[in-house]
Amino acid sequence: MSNLCLPAEVLDYIADLLHDREVELRNCCLVSKSWIPRTRKHLFADIRLDGEEDLESWKETFPDPPTSPACYAETLIVGCPRLVTAADAEEGGWIKGFSHVMHLEVGSRALHTDKAGVSLVPLHGLSPVVKSVRAYFITLPSSQIFDLVLSFPLLENLTTVAYGASADDVNGSDRPPTIVQPSSPPVFTGSLDLFLTRGVEHITRRLLSLPDGIHFREIVLTWFREEDSLLTMALVEKCSRTIETLDITCHLGTSIRHRGSQRFLILFSSWVGRDRPL
């Protein structure tokens, strides 16, 4: 490997121009050591750890966590949280190398049954610049998911699907979190996308109870029961000064899409009082 000297701005321009061409970026890494950091910024911008094979491949390729390219990741998808957190425990903070992640997805998109014993604590505060979280779980208590959410003070966007309510969720308990007590809750100024199952109902109630309120500009809700309309009203009212877009899919036969909140509050209040969907 040679040390081809070019102005930094030229190297950056070349790498940025090839940001979506993986083969060319890999070839750039072979040109010179000085080319590696900028090309790695694009090569490792999106990291997906969907299962044991992905995890083992990463660990074998980058056995020394401090020198791994984890710091270049902006999007991290953890489809096997139990395996990842176990590896983190064995190697003393391995997951913290992903310190510049802005978009975090945890759980299984396919909603396969999660194995018992999953703890999200090692992912708490993973990166101080996380702006969006997507969480998909079946068996994990929703309180654990919300504790994870609260660990990111700059969080703006939240998407959650959670089927597996814990006993306190089912009984409607609003027990405060015992692990995460942030000095300042997330800002929540982006989008909220909720699939209103029983577990997410608990998350919704905790969102509504945050002392500094919520300020989402876009709310997307999917629900199945008429009683969920009350939570919808509460969410819209809480965000009445900031909400710009509202998208509701009700599996009772109703679909509502509306821009702006004030007029919607009137329309929705009228709909709630009806005997059947519009």
Binned, the helix content reads: 25-40%
**Strand count, sense and closure of the main sheet?**
9 strands, mixed
- Global structural class: alpha/beta
Alpha-carbon Rg, integer? 22 Å
Number of helical segments?
A: 10
Query: How many strands?
Result: 9
What overall geometry do the principal axes of the alpha carbons give?
globular
Intertermini distance: 68 Å
Q: Uncertain spans, ≥5 residues at pLDDT below 50?
A: 110-115, 165-180, 269-278
Order of helices and strands: HHHEHEHEEHEHEHEHEEH
Strand order, sheet with most strands: 1-2-3-4-5-6-7-8-9
Nearest-integer average pLDDT? 76
Would you give an account of this structure?
The protein is an alpha/beta fold and 278 residues long. Helices cover 33% and strands 17% of the residues. It contains ten helices and nine strands. It has a nine-stranded mixed beta sheet. Strand 4, helix 6 and strand 5 form a beta-alpha-beta unit. Helix 2 (22-29) runs antiparallel to helix 3 (36-43), helix 6 packs parallel to helix 8 and helix 9 (228-238) runs antiparallel to helix 10. Residues 110-115, 165-180 and 269-278 have low confidence and may be disordered.
